[in-house]
Amino acid sequence: MTINFFEHQDTVAQNLITFIRLKGYSKLSLSKLTGISRPTIDQILKCESPNQTTYNAQITKINEVFGLREDFFLTAQPVAFSPALPFYAFSDHGSGSERSPQARELLEGLDNVLDIYSMYLK
Q1: Which domain of life is it from (predicted)?
Q2: Residue range 88-103: average pLDDT?
Q3: For a FRET experiment, which of 33, 42, 71, 90 has its CA 20 to 30 Å from that of 58?
Q4: Per-residue pLDDT reduced to its tens digit, 3-60
Q5: Residue 96: is its pLDDT beyond 50?
Q6: Which CATH superfamily is domain 5-120 in?
Q7: Coil, helix or strand for 110?
């Protein structure tokens, strides 16, 4: 079964946001886990993906990484998840060699908090 997710961008975005919240991921951690760039994750969540083929491949990749059914993001459903393990990734902005390890850790934590906050802001 091949689904054209591009035709259902609003539904996919809403269900992906719910999935991210329930798993406790940030957009950055989702990006690192899936190999999909952070700006592209933003496009998916804002329903602004310009290319149908690429969009469909990206949603398929997310499903595969997490072992989800192909139509998972097309249907709203109650899902019980175990708490996500912490996932840390440093920002690629600025020159990391000038910051102490403690400063990098604090900025990374702040970046993740801001990502999560931005998802609840709407």
Answers
A1: Bacteria
A2: 63
A3: 90
A4: 899 999 999 999 999 999 888 898 999 999 999 999 999 999 999 998 999 999 999 9
A5: no
A6: lambda repressor-like DNA-binding domains (1.10.260.40)
A7: helix
Q: What is the structure's pLDDT at 84?
A: 54
Instruction: List, in order, residues 6 or more apart from 96 with CB less than 8 Å away.
Output: 90, 104
For the chain, the domains span: 5-120
Distance between CA atoms of residues 79 and 81, nearest Å? 6
3-class SS letters over the chain: CCCCHHHHHHHHHHHHHHHHHHHCCCHHHHHHHHCCCHHHHHHHHCCCCCCHHHHHHHHHHHHHHHCCCCCHHHCCCCCCCCCCCCCCCCCCCCCHHHCCHHHHHHHHHHHHHHHHHHHHCC
